[in-house]
């Protein structure tokens, strides 16, 4: 019970747990829409693209939040512009823009600060979360959850049938860019927990796991948030006990839940499907 | 006031290549209008351009004297089945409920009355037994009926259906065409992208025949003629036989 004793004794551990739980929840929520809209690559892109913004913020001495949000949004606009105004397909334009932004970010960070900071931004370090970061994460979490709650209807219909939604007058482009903004906010909030490179595991894996388990969007979102939070907490626990890097352990925790679900889920589970097939063959041949 | 649905001088291009060239037509409300033409003729593109969903290079569209933007909430659109993600986590009755969203507007959730109305629309297409199924569990014809129920739930004045009869069973096709004919009787205007020439005369009152350019528009008996069809399909149409095949 060392962990729980330490949790009570050490404030840094409490902050880490609170921050990463919030991150797990909002990643699951926004990730559900990312998965359903087929934008997993976009999630990966935006998380990498906040890097130059973080670097520039360091250089001019402002909170990294502002720079990160700015470059995240610029990247989303840039990708949209290329795929709408040229014959280059969406996934290719994502590749072009985000690799450029990431490369620029790495150069800027190494110029601006020491290599340890780069390491921390790339892979996160949740045990060093400050109070201000924790509150920033909580505020971002509240904004994201409120936005999803208020515009749930519009997000549902535009994710499911964008043309029908546009035909009755929904501004589907505005919705798309609003999701990009929320995604950027979530990425910024996740920087310290899992880092730029592994944010996508928090965004995609819990949502994809939930997707295997339900036929309702609202349930999917709730499950994804739950899996995200569980992964975050268990990741911190394991990394603390065995002295391993937190971000990667959290990422692998999401994967473990996904693999277990893929094998065992009652509807989509690989195991049950195989069993059903064997039974069917037996009835046919018998 | 102008009492027609007018499309004038409609031009659409895609990276400099013209895909719809100078299309003009005009119909009274209360008609069931078929949009026909060979594969790649731009039928779906034209429909989307009329609705302002695809950018137009030029063209005026008016619905009884009003712009598309002004009548958006009276427009129900049913996409091609191939454009839908059938694995989406949504069940049949919630799919139909989406049809009540335009009238609800922002921030208002569907109430009991909206849910009852959606169920009523589902009954009209004979799919109420499947209310709790995920949409991917249905056959093609059943899926199309559910999407028609969603359009009905919109209580629209103008219906736009993109290839609703492709790859569906005969009984679903009959259910759908009968509902479309009922809507017409109620004074609604329905546009249907269609490519099976065999049923054209049974289904539609008016036709738009295109192949990038407008070949003909007007009452079926004036447009659906061998010589005019030949212009669109560029294959001889001596007899009406052999027309059922997708030319």
UniProtKB/TrEMBL annotation, chain A:
Protein's UniProt keywords contain ATP-binding: no
Subcellular location(s) of the protein: Cell membrane; Membrane
Transmembrane segments: 12-36, 56-82, 94-114, 134-153, 174-191, 221-242, 248-266
Domain of life: Bacteria
Keywords assigned by UniProt, alphabetized: Membrane, Transmembrane, Transmembrane helix, Transport
InterPro entries to which the protein is assigned, alphabetical: ABC_BtuC-like (IPR037294), ABC_TroCD (IPR001626)
Location, primary (coarse class): membrane
Topological category with respect to the lipid bilayer: Multi-pass membrane protein
Protein's UniProt keywords contain Transport: yes
Pfam families: ABC-3
SUPFAM superfamilies per the UniProt record, alphabetical: ABC transporter involved in vitamin B12 uptake, BtuC
UniProt similarity note: Belongs to the ABC-3 integral membrane protein family.
Protein name in UniProt: Iron/zinc/copper transport system permease protein
Native species: Virgibacillus alimentarius
UniProtKB/TrEMBL annotation, chain B:
Entry keyword tRNA processing: no
InterPro entries: AAA+_ATPase, ABC_transporter-like_ATP-bd, ABC_transporter-like_CS, Metal_Ion_Import_ABC, P-loop_NTPase
Keywords: ATP-binding, Nucleotide-binding, Transport
UniProt source species: Virgibacillus alimentarius
Transmembrane regions: none
Domain ABC transporter residues, every copy: 5-237
Protein name: Iron/zinc/copper transport system ATP-binding protein
Pfam families with a match to the protein in the record: ABC_tran
Recorded superkingdom: Bacteria
Entry's family note: Belongs to the ABC transporter superfamily.
Any GO MF annotation of the entry: ATP binding
């Amino acid at each position: 019970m060392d962990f729980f004793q330490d949790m009570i004794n050490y404030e840094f551990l409490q902050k880490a747990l609170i921050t990463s739980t919030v991150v797990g929840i909002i990643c699951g929520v926004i990730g559900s829409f990312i998965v359903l809209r087929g934008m997993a690559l976009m999630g990966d892109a935006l998380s990498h693209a906040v890097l130059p913004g973080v670097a520039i913020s360091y250089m001019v001495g402002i909170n990294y939040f502002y720079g990160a949000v700015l470059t995240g949004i610029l990247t989303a606009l840039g990708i949209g512009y290329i795929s709408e105004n040229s014959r280059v397909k969406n996934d290719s334009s994502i590749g072009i823009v985000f690799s450029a932004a990431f490369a620029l970010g790495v150069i800027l960070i190494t110029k601006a600060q020491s290599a340890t900071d780069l390491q921390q931004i790339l892979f996160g370090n949740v045990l060093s979360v400050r109070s201000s970061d924790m509150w920033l994460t909580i505020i971002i979490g509240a904004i994201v959850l409120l936005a999803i709650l208020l515009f749930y209807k519009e997000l549902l219909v535009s994710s499911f049938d964008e043309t029908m939604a546009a035909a009755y007058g929904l501004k589907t482009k505005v919705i798309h860019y609003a999701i990009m903004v929320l995604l950027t906010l979530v990425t910024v909030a996740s920087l310290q927990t899992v880092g730029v490179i592994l944010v996508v595991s928090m965004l995609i894996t819990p949502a994809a796991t939930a997707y295997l388990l339900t036929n309702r969007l609202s349930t999917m979102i709730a499950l994804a948030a739950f899996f995200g939070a569980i992964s975050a907490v268990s990741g911190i626990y394991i990394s603390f006990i065995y002295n391993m890097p937190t971000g990667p352990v959290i990422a692998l925790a999401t994967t473990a839940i996904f693999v277990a679900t893929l094998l065992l889920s009652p509807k989509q589970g690989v195991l049950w499907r195989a069993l059903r097939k064997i039974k069917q063959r037996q009835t046919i041949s018998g | 006031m102008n009492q027609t649905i007018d499309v004038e001088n409609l031009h659409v291009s895609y990276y400099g290549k013209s895909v719809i060239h100078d299309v003009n037509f005009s119909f009274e409300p209360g008609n069931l209008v078929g949009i026909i033409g060979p594969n790649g003729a731009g039928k779906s593109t034209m429909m989307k351009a009329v609705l302002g969903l695809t950018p137009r290079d030029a063209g005026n569209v008016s619905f009884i004297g009003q712009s598309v933007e002004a009548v958006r909430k009276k427009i129900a659109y049913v996409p091609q089945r191939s454009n839908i993600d059938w694995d989406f986590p949504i069940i049949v009755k919630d799919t139909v409920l989406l049809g009540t969203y335009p009238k609800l507007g922002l921030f208002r959730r569907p109430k009991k009355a909206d849910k009852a109305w959606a169920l009523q629309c589902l009954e009209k297409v004979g799919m109420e037994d499947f209310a709790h199924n995920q949409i991917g569990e249905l056959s093609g014809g059943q899926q199309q009926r559910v999407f028609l129920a969603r359009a009905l739930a919109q209580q629209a004045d103008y219906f736009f259906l993109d290839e609703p009869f492709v790859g569906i069973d005969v009984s679903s096709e009959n259910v759908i065409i009968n509902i479309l004919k009922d809507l017409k009787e109620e004074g609604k205007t329905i546009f249907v992208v269609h490519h099976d020439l065999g049923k054209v005369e049974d289904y539609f009152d008016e036709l738009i025949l295109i192949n990038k350019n407008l070949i003909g528009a007007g009452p079926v008996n004036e447009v659906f003629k061998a010589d005019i069809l030949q212009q669109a399909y560029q294959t001889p149409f001596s007899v009406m036989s052999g027309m059922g095949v997708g030319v």
